Amino acid sequence: MSQPDLRISLDDATRRGLLALAEIYHTTPERMVKSWAESEVTCRLGQMLAEMPAELVVPKVGRFIEVPAPEQYRCWTISDHRPTGTDESLTVSLMVASGELPPDFSFVARTLRRWAELGKLACDIALDRLALPADTGLGGPEVTFGSGRRWTLRFADCDASGLTELSVLVEFNGSKVTGIHDPADATEH
Questions:
Q1: Contact (CB, 8 A) for 19 and 13
Q2: 47: Cβ–Cβ under 8 A, 6 or more apart, which residues?
Q3: pTM, full prediction
Q4: pLDDT digits (tens, 9 = 90+) for 105-130
Q5: Cα–Cα nearest to 126, from 161, 87, 167
Q6: Fewer beta carbons under 10 A from the terminal one: N or C of the chain?
């Protein structure tokens, strides 16, 4: 299950119904079809999420077990994952919201293979943007992959004063840092 494929088709009866609705609501047929397609995709993605198994296997990473998640989400976690070439132990999660595609498993595996580089990048940027001393200890890494190439790294253990108990969160899109902040603080750096 590397990248799910979602296809929808517009049958003739639905097309005729959408054309009639376009006339009633004084809009273009294209807008009606677009609105229908968006609704259909959201519905199908919700069904896809509900049908995902309680255990997911990400090749070259391991077996993820489902854990409790907020309403409209599903989450799978693997604890004590040790990326190749590091002594660091990570908690890695896959978090999927209803209406979104699950993370691309091959992207997850590629990202974790680059952990030494990306973990250091996140740490260096966190220290810089939060103006923390260079010797600040950031540890207890928790990595969460969302839809597409979005993922976050939370340093759960931080020995810097002034940060809340939620510590430091670094947001990524692919290998680019897109945000950094204390999760309990609304300020983004």
A1: no
A2: none
A3: 0.72
A4: 899 999 999 998 999 999 888 888 87
A5: 167
A6: N
